[in-house]
Queue: 2 jobs
Job 1
Amino acid sequence: MFENIKSRFPVFIKKPNLVFLDTAASA
């Protein structure tokens, strides 16, 4: 699951918190 997030959101490495919240909201 996390691998997909990294592939779709390269920003995950720079802003993991922001992407995490965005992903949680989408899910």
Job 2
Amino acid sequence: MLVALGAGVALTVKIRVEPTPTAERDPAAEQALPWLKRVAQNCERYDRAEQEGERAQALKDNARLVASTVVASARGRLESKRVSSDGSQILFTLAVGSAKFKPSLLHPIHADTEMFERIQQAQIGSCLQFSVRTLTAASILERSKVCDKDYFADFAVIEPCH
């Protein structure tokens, strides 16, 4: 496409439209956490939606689903961990298949707690069993809030797998 900028100056612009990515299914994670199947279905609805209202409804349905989900005794792999620069809390990611769970900014894991010590002692890659009181989507982008499986969690329990 040729765009005239004025004063005899023109610019050629090539526009490439990327296809919308398809929802990724993760059977192992969906088996361990059955509600992830509904997340994938909401993502598919969002991607198929032709009207903004349909996308908004898929987004709203997914937000309700995630907010009402309680995770009990899930098994995840410790993917990463680090202590904050001031040493007051531990930041980490637990993975269940492609789903990722991190401490909520509103509910950090503080130093001098049992959970802090358990995570600190766990090796990267080790299995941890965990329960979560509340979840929120970690992304700020609309499609990602529906389709990404990346969550902030209010952890109730974290312990080594038995």
